[in-house]
Design a protein that fits this description.
The protein has one helix and seven strands, in the order βββββββα. By secondary structure, the protein is mainly beta. The chain has a five-stranded antiparallel sheet with strand order 4-5-3-7-6, with no helix packed on it.
């Protein structure tokens, strides 16, 4: 299936299923996967971000995005498509990267290397190291750095 040329949201190269990182300790959770082979530098997905109401504290909710460069962050967003299901990886090891257009409330996700079909898609959360809700996850992802 091809997407419409005018669409603002396209996640046709991605599907969601149980993450390969799920286990007895973490419990079951979902991840985003490549539906087709994707070449390095290729657009994987594009989408929109809905800003959450002023006063929302995203430091305690792992399911929303840091949506601004201000620290401490005061702007949080809810992402479209499959983007909320991309799990994180240590900086420099993820197979995708998210380009954020804060002023336009949109994003694009690109492959950082060739990705075979059915591989789990990962990007590094920009707030992994400082958001309270990610403290345990940060310890796991960056355990070799300690």
């Amino acid at each position: 299936m091809t997407s419409h040329a005018d669409t603002k949201i396209d996640c046709s190269k991605v599907y969601v299923k149980k993450s390969t990182f799920s286990n007895e300790e973490t419990g079951d959770f979902d991840g985003a996967f490549a539906a087709v082979a994707i070449k390095e530098g290729e657009l994987v997905e594009k989408g929109l971000m809905r800003r959450l109401p002023e006063g929302f504290d995203g430091n305690t909710c792992p399911y929303i995005f840091t949506w601004g460069e201000e620290r401490p962050c005061k702007t949080w967003g809810m992402g479209s498509g499959c983007a909320p299901f991309y799990n994180t990886a240590k900086e420099g090891t993820a197979n995708t990267r998210m380009v954020r257009f804060f002023d336009e409330d949109r994003f694009e996700i690109y492959a950082t290397r060739d990705i075979p079909a059915d591989e789990e898609l990962l990007h590094t959360y920009i707030s992994l190291k400082w958001r309270k809700c990610f403290s345990d996850l940060n310890d796991i992802v960056n355990k070799d750095d300690k």
